[in-house]
Amino acid sequence: MRIAKTTNTVDGDDVGRVTGQAGPVTRTPRTRSARLPSHLVAWAFLAPVVLYLAVFYAYPLGRNVDLSFRDYTLRSFIDGTAKFSGFDNYVEVIHSPTFVPALTNTAVFTFVSIAFQFSIGLALAVFFFKKFPLAATLRALFLVPWLLPLLVSASVWAWMLNSESGIVNSGLEHLGMHQINWLTSPQWALVSVLIANIWIGIPFNLVLMYSGLQSIPGEVYEAASLDGASKWQVFWRITFPLLRPVSAITILLGLVYTLKVFDIIWIMTRGGPGNSSVTFAIWSYRLGFGGGSPDLSPAAAVANLLILVAFAFGLVYIRMQRRLVEL
Q1: Which of 96, 133, 150, 177 would give a disulfide with 172, using CB separation of 3.0 to 4.6 Å?
Q2: Under a CB-based contact definition with an 8 Å cutoff, are residues 102 and 275 in contact?
Q3: Do the beta carbons of residue 245 and residue 211 sit within 8 Å?
Q4: pLDDT tens-digit profile of 48-59?
Q5: Which of 262, 247, 265, 269 lies closest to 306 in space, CA to CA?
């Protein structure tokens, strides 16, 4: 008698239950289709951000690059008939007599502002980190310069440093000192806008550094006090090294912000007298909207140079962060 052989198909889960091991799992079309809506939901959440970046960042940047590589006038800007000029606008900008003063003033304005803003902000953060009466109230008052509109702050500083009716010169006169032409002297115009910008940027550094101090464990300071470390040793060997990540992002954000400062300088000195306080941001605005016949293409070239400098600082920050992670 012949017995017919029967073949039973066992799926992966049954094999796992019999042998105690997980069997191969094959994806069915149903599971793939079930995961498809989750990807669509993820892209739906990303779509507004991507659209925002494309419309308000990528498109204007592309248009600015196109402006810098063509010879635009008001007429050609409207009808779109500007001729391609290559790097001629960049060559014109670099050989301009305003290039060296603008580059020097931009570097001085940026690095001096960051140095004082960071140092004073860090010192105030360490000071307010100590618990004492009215500490929270005083810390809140230091945020006032940061909360005020730049138009208001720059106008107040322009009035205070006015050569004829300013309160600063009035105070110097009462002290028996010579008055200074803060806003109209080539030697003091850049110093004037530096003072105003430093005053405005200190609260930003204070807030970030204070938050960084709060993230340092208190046990570290207790161990240092038990070892007999002085206050300076605690600061330089514990506080400052542990604040390195916060310090890096604070300095980077300060650099990017200070490079493009326009309101303060334009309201107080308009980049003058002459080119004594002109920066790349002010120079670009002068070329494009300063009056007379606008030089749109050279103005776009100056703006692109400023963007490249800010981009370079961003790359330096990313490299520093990678080194910190590797350490």
Answers
A1: 177
A2: yes
A3: no
A4: 999 999 999 899
A5: 262
In a domain, 2, yes or no: no
How far is 300 from 306, CA to CA, in rounded Å? 10
Report whether 101 contacts 95 (CB < 8 A): no
Q: Measured between alpha carbons, how far is 51 from 218 in angstroms, rounded to an integer?
A: 45
Number of residues that make up the chain = 327
The predicted structure's pLDDT at residue 326: 65
Residue span of the structural domain in which 109 resides: 88-326
pLDDT average, residue stretch 59-88:
86
CATH of residue 195: 1.10.3720.10
pLDDT of res. 193? 96
Place of tokens 């603008």: 102
What digits encode the pLDDT tens for the residues 251-268? 988 988 899 899 999 999
Q: Are 166 and 277 in contact (CB under 8 A)?
A: no
| Token reading at 259 | 């490079």
State how many domains the chain has: 1
Average pLDDT over residues 301-325: 84
